[in-house]
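User: Structure please.
Assistant: Input sequence and predicted structure:
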Amino acid sequence: MPSMSNSELHLFVLEGVRAESIYVDKLEQHFLGKRISVKCVYEAEIYQLYKQLKAEDFAYDMVDLLKERSEDNAAILHEYNRDSFASVYLFFDYDAHSTMADDGKLQEMLDYFDNETENGMNYLVNDVYDLPKQIESQSNIFKKQLEKHITHKCPEVAVLSAFPIYALDYYGVEGLKRKLEESYEN
């Protein structure tokens, strides 16, 4: 992940209002520093986003898509376009229980949203705020979940929290260690 300064603006696209927004607030408070982000809520599952993007052959502008999605997003983003943001991060739940759930579509989304400065970077979320033990891409995490958990006779889901992975991507190992040490000292 490229080094980013606090002067660059970042767009966070969240699945829901509550938990994801709290995590982004915590990231800003403990890691990112002063407000450098704009948060918008898609208010639907990742599979609905997939359906909308696929219908447009993935030829879309994320900011325009969000403005059209809700009046709240339109108000938040009224002075912005895609070029306003150095990076776009998407935080969506895995939602295997969804009637629209499709692992192939989810893999396609992870492959498409794999660069925060281009199409955006998608992170799968659960409600745990723990640090990962090693660095893995979201796509590799999902593939391992399919292999070890989801495709079994009794499927289960083992999702790592995306927020610490995001912090690790953003700062790198040494930078994150410094940030954590600083936060423990305060």
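The chain has one domain: 10-185.
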